[in-house]
Design brief:
The chain starts with a strand and ends with a helix. The chain is mainly α and 499 residues long. It is built from 20 helices and 3 strands.
C-alpha cells in the first residue's frame, strides 16, 4: 500500500496560509523595520486567498489516498487522509472568518514594542493551517498531528508579549493541559489502532460495526480519545486551564482560543463521533450528554461571579462549549442535512457563537487599549462615549444570551436544542433551558453596565486615551454588521454552514 500524489487544489487553503506565515516571518526579520501593517495586510491577503481557494473546485475533493494494487485493490476500498466536503467547507468558513477578525484585533498592539509582529502572524497562520487541516482529516494520525499544529503555536502566542510574566504563567498552564490532552488522545488512538489495525475512519467504523476485537478495549480507546478532545475545547471536567489562560493572554489571542482553536477541537469531536465511533453511539451518547450538561452549568455558574470582562467571557466560553457539544447526542440520528441533524446543528451553533464572541472580544480589546483595564466597571457608559463599540458589545452579548432583538442568537439556541429534544436526551434539554436562563443573568448585567450613563470623568471619549486603531475599528464594524445582517436574514448563515 502507498499514497497517491497531492491534489494541490484541495490542499490550497492550508498551503497558502502556511507559506504566507513563513514569508511574513522572514520578511519581518530582514526588513530591518518593525511594521505591524505589513503583517496585518499580509495575513489578510493570505486568509482571503485561502477562502478563494476553498471555494474553488465545486464537488467533494480528496487527496493523500491509498494506492492499492493486486489483490488488495479487489478486497479493500481506497481510503483518503484529506477530504474537502460540505462539512470541511463549513468549518473552514468559520476558521477563516474568525482568523480575519483576530488579525484585525491584533493591530491594537501596533504601538507596543514588546509584541513582535512577524512572530505573531507566523504563529497565528501556522495555527490556522493546523485548524484547516484538522477539519479535512479523515484518519487518526492526521487528526492528532493537526491538533498539535493548532495547539503549539497557540501556546507560544499566549506568552509572546515580552516581559509579561502573567502571560508566561498562563502559557505554562496551557502547555501542561495541552500535553496532557495529547498523551490521553494518543493512548486512546493506540488502543483503537491495536484493535482495528487501521487509522482510517472508514476502516475503523467498519471494524467497530462488525464487532472486531475485545469490546472493552475499543470502548476504553473511545473514552480516552474523547477525553483528549474534550481537553482541547475546554469542556468539563478538563476546563480549568481556560480562565487562567484567557486572563494572561493578549486579548486577541484569547479571542482566537475561544473561537478558532475551539472550532478545531469541535471539528475533531464531530469527526470521530460521526465516523469511526458512530456505531458505538449508544455507548458514548450518555457520556456526551453528561459532559455537555456539566460544561454549560459549571461555566454559567462561574460566570455569574465574575467582575472582569475577560473572566466573564472565559467562563462564558466554557458554557458555550456545552451548547456546542449538546447536539452531538443526536449526531447519528435523523435525516442528514435536516433541521434535526446533530452534526449540522453543532456546526451552525459554533458559527453563530463565533461571530458573537468575537464581537465581544473586539470591544474588550478596544477598551483595554484605551483604559489599560478590563474590569466590567470600565465599560460603564460605553454606549454613549463610543457608540460603535457600545452597540457592538450590546449586539454580541444579546446574541450570546439568545435574547431579542438579536434574532440570530435566539435562533442559535433553537438550533442546538431541537435535535436534543427530538432525537437526544430529554433531561439534557431541560438542563439546556435552565442554563439559557442562567446565562441571561450575567449577560444582561454586563449589558446594563454598558448602557447605564456614567460621569464624564469615568469614561473618556473615543480617542482621548491611546492611539485609535483603524484595523480594530474595522473589526468592530464587521462583527456588528455580521450580527445585524444575520439577525435580519438568518437564512444566510444557515445556507453557508450547510453540512
Amino acid at each position: 500500500m502507498s499514497l497517491t500524489g497531492f491534489d494541490w487544489l484541495a490542499l490550497g487553503p492550508v498551503v497558502i496560509v502556511g507559506v504566507a506565515g513563513v514569508v511574513l516571518l522572514l520578511g519581518d526579520a530582514f526588513a530591518g523595520v518593525r511594521s505591524w501593517t505589513l503583517g496585518t495586510v499580509g495575513s489578510l491577503v493570505a486568509l482571503g486567498g485561502a477562502a478563494v481557494a476553498a471555494g474553488m473546485g465545486g464537488d467533494s475533493r480528496e487527496t493523500m489516498c491509498t494506492q492499492l494494487t493486486g489483490q488488495e485493490a479487489l478486497e479493500q476500498p481506497v481510503q483518503c487522509s484529506f477530504v474537502v466536503d460540505d462539512f470541511t467547507l463549513a468549518l473552514w468558513w468559520i476558521i477563516l472568518a474568525g482568523a480575519v477578525l483576530v488579525v484585525l484585533m491584533a493591530a491594537v498592539y501596533a504601538d507596543d514594542v514588546r509584541m513582535p509582529p512577524g512572530e505573531f502572524h507566523f504563529l497565528l497562520l501556522s495555527s490556522v493551517g493546523g485548524a484547516l487541516t484538522l477539519a479535512a482529516s479523515r484518519d487518526l494520525v492526521s487528526l492528532v498531528i493537526a491538533l498539535e499544529l493548532v495547539s503549539l503555536p497557540s501556546i507560544a502566542l499566549v506568552a509572546l508579549r515580552r516581559g509579561d510574566l502573567r502571560a508566561s504563567r498562563s502559557a505554562w498552564t496551557f502547555f501542561l493541559a495541552s500535553v496532557t490532552a495529547t498523551a490521553i488522545t494518543l493512548m486512546g488512538v493506540s488502543l483503537v489502532y491495536g484493535v482495528t489495525g487501521s487509522v482510517f475512519f472508514d476502516d475503523i467504523r467498519n471494524d467497530v460495526q462488525s464487532g472486531a476485537g475485545p469490546e472493552a478495549v475499543i470502548r476504553t480507546g473511545v473514552i480516552l480519545t474523547l477525553a483528549g478532545l474534550v481537553f482541547k475545547i475546554g469542556a468539563v471536567p478538563f476546563h480549568m486551564w481556560v480562565p487562567d489562560t484567557y486572563a494572561g493572554a493578549p486579548v486577541p489571542v484569547a479571542a482566537y482560543l475561544s473561537v478558532v482553536s475551539k472550532a478545531a477541537g469541535v471539528a475533531g469531536l464531530l469527526l470521530v463521533l460521526s465516523k469511526p465511533f458512530g456505531p458505538l453511539v449508544d455507548f458514548w451518547s450518555p457520556v456526551v450528554a453528561v459532559v455537555a450538561g456539566l460544561t454549560m452549568t459549571v461555566g454559567n455558574i462561574a460566570a455569574l461571579r465574575q467582575t472582569d470582562a475577560i473572566g466573564l467571557l472565559a467562563w462564558s466560553s466554557v458554557a458555550q462549549a456545552g451548547f456546542v457539544v449538546a447536539p452531538m447526542v443526536a449526531l447519528v440520528a435523523g435525516d442528514h442535512g435536516s433541521a434535526d441533524d446533530g452534526l449540522q446543528a453543532a456546526v451552525r451553533y459554533l458559527g453563530i457563537y463565533a461571530i458573537a464572541n468575537l464581537a465581544a472580544f473586539a470591544v474588550v480589546a478596544h477598551v483595554k487599549a484605551r483604559l489599560g483595564r478590563t474590569d466590567i466597571a470600565s465599560f460603564r457608559g460605553l454606549l454613549r462615549s463610543d457608540p460603535l463599540a457600545g452597540i457592538t458589545l450590546v449586539a454580541g452579548l444579546l446574541a450570546l444570551a439568545g435574547f431579542p432583538p438579536a434574532v440570530i442568537g435566539l435562533l442559535a439556541k433553537y438550533v442546538a436544542l431541537r435535535p436534543v429534544v427530538f432525537f437526544g436526551d430529554g433531561a439534557l434539554a431541560v438542563v439546556m433551558a435552565v442554563n439559557v436562563m442562567i446565562g441571561l443573568a450575567y449577560y444582561l448585567r454586563f449589558l446594563a453596565t454598558v448602557v447605564v450613563p456614567a460621569a464624564d470623568e469615568q469614561v473618556p471619549t473615543a480617542g482621548t486615551i491611546g492611539t485609535e486603531q483603524p484595523w480594530l475599528r474595522a473589526a468592530l464594524g464587521l462583527t456588528l454588521a455580521s450580527l445585524v445582517v444575520t439577525s435580519l436574514w438568518p437564512e444566510l448563515i444557515m445556507r453557508l454552514l450547510m453540512v
